[in-house]
Amino acid sequence: MSKHDEGRRAFLIGTAVGAGAAASALVPQALAQSEHQGHIPADAPAVRQPTIQTVQVMGGGHGAFFNDEDARTVAAFCERLMPGAPGRPGATDADALNYIDLALAGAYSDQQNFYRRGVMQLDAHCTKTYGKPFRSLTAAQQDGTISALEHGKVPEFLWPTAQSFFETLRTHTMEAMFADPIYGGNRDFAGWRLVGFPGAQPIFTEEDMHSDQAFAREPIAGLQSRAVSKKG
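^ that's the sequence the OP posted. Answer follows.
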């Protein structure tokens, strides 16, 4: 893993650790912001509507909203934001694509045009600059593109703005890594294991409550398993 990758991971993981106890609140917080991001200006350029396929809940990578090409683009973008390494899961390991895909087909449906136009402008920039869409670039080229978006230096972006597109994908990647797996990301508790978050535990011992160390013992509990146990 390059120093660039390590620095990005350290920043995102540090942010997640600071909010670890509230990881399951990431989705509700983002929902409160989505209405503003989903507003479409009257002068926004038209874009072709992709076919909406059958929702594949809790698995499969995509199929609820994204077409194949856009799925590859978003998956590559998320992985560069949170790159995986041996023993350290990244966005692909946590199934970030599946999380975002399901969210856009459901709770985040007001952001569908935001994503369509953002991906369209992203590929327009990459094709103009490198002769290839984002999903086909090298890791270094993808990192350079993401950095340009972060600093608002991509003139092809009108709406959403380059910085808004970057911030939204970073937020959704964080949600996919650290929100409860019931939402379609954080596969096998990849993100929670990374930061030592115990999940939706029904009870903590007194030792747990006074510990300043990351939670390490099994099991890590998610909302789905708790719902099943209550029914049983």
